[in-house]
Amino acid sequence: MSIARTTPALLGLFSLVILVAHHLQNSQKFSIRQAAWYAKPLPTFVDAITLVRQSLWSSTFSMSHSPSDMVKIPRALLERLTDTLGYAA
């Protein structure tokens, strides 16, 4: 019985992530992580979910609306952390 509920929920979440990533790609940098042995011409789901995670985390961790270089840690470090954690989670 739980498979009957889980599969549509996962399909819905997959679709939601893709739609949000498609919307975000116009306003944010959509980086495609490449491997040394495999070049991807187009973004995959991992790249899409990472873009969505980075967008959510950067808006969550940055409480200030001013575009300063310092949040509570240097902005460059925050961006590097969200990039790394987006692929690791």
Helical run tally? 3
Helix content: 55-70%
Beta-strand residue fraction: under 5%
Q: Which stretches are low in confidence, meaning pLDDT under 50 for 5 or more residues running? A: none
Give structural notes.
- This protein is mostly helical and 89 residues long.
- 61% of the residues lie in helices and 0% in strands.
Outline of the structure:
By secondary structure, the protein is mostly helical. It is built from 3 helices and no strands.
Supply the key terms.
mainly alpha, about 90 residues
SSE topology sketch:
Elements lengths: L1 H23 L20 H17 L13 H14 L1
